[in-house]
UniProtKB/TrEMBL annotation:
One of its GO terms (molecular function) is methyltransferase activity. One of its GO terms (biological process) is methylation. This is SAM-dependent methyltransferase. The keyword Transferase applies.
């Protein structure tokens, strides 16, 4: 349940990024204002739906890679968004029931749904923090109540860094988060990119809607987040191209304007 201060932070008069994204991936936790801007953007750039869907599938592949091939048993997911299907904890705990996952967001709507929907296997743990990306040290300190930060962690920051307007600040936030994690930890990032006129127009329409802005970046800037880390093959690529599964042939034909990568801390 939300307290009065949290309810006061909910604004249903303007689109909201988590609800907007929820609408695009077929969820039901959104309002008319979110669907209106969603439909407007679909008319401008239908490809954004593909970005939403393929980015969600990338999350699953990345988590499975870390849990199955790298033995990672701890995940810190920042910018959780609204729960849908195959959230980080569900994917990780299917591979490793003892996996421990901490979700981080500072949105009261996300908090309400997270408390209701984010469950765990008996062997593992799923926790939620009402915390702010802009205070990395506080995030890490709070996460340490659930995670052992002396052991490798998979740091997930998906479709979130675009909300940080200043690129230098975004890189510094990532650097500070990774500085608090040990060797063997992995950084997982995906974000929409300024790789087509349609995506740029969609971003401008969204930003003019009154929602918290989301800035699309050049691919080189996405790659810059992994400076100092060992990139996992195939490197920074379009979201469908990162370790596609055998059934992903049709998805590979989708020229989405979103890039991703996974980097390992040495």
């Amino acid at each position: 349940m939300l307290d009065d201060s949290q309810r006061a932070r909910i604004d249903t008069s303007k689109p909201h990024s988590a609800r907007f994204w929820n609408y695009f991936v077929g969820g039901k936790d959104n309002y008319e204002v979110d669907r209106e801007i969603g439909d407007q953007i679909k008319s401008i750039f239908p490809g954004l739906v593909d970005v939403a869907v393929t980015s969600r599938r990338f999350l699953g592949r990345a988590v499975r890679h870390l849990a199955e091939e790298q033995g990672v048993r701890q995940f810190l997911d920042i910018g959780t968004g609204l729960p849908t299907a195959d959230n980080t904890h569900e994917v990780a705990q299917r591979v490793a029931p003892d996996a421990r996952i901490v979700y981080v967001d500072n949105d009261p709507i996300v908090l309400a749904h997270a408390n209701a929907l984010l469950t765990s296997t008996p062997e593992g743990v799923t926790a939620y923090l009402d915390a702010d990306l802009y205070d990395p040290e506080a995030v890490l300190e709070a996460a340490a109540g659930t995670l052992d930060l002396s052991r490798p962690v998979g740091l997930m920051i998906l479709n979130t860094l675009g909300h940080v307007a200043d690129y230098g600040q975004a890189r510094e936030l990532v650097r500070r988060l990774m500085a608090g994690l040990p060797a063997g930890s992995h950084l997982v990032i995906s974000d929409s990119t300024a790789t087509s006129e349609g995506m740029i127009a969609a971003s401008e329409a969204y930003n003019s809607s009154g929602a918290v802005p989301y800035y699309v970046r050049p691919v080189a800037e996405i790659a810059g987040f992994f400076e100092g880390l060992e990139l996992v093959r195939p490197g920074v690529v379009r979201v469908p191209e990162w370790r596609p599964e055998r059934s992903g042939g049709a998805e590979l034909d989708t020229a989405v304007d979103a890039y991703c990568g996974v980097g390992r801390k040495l």
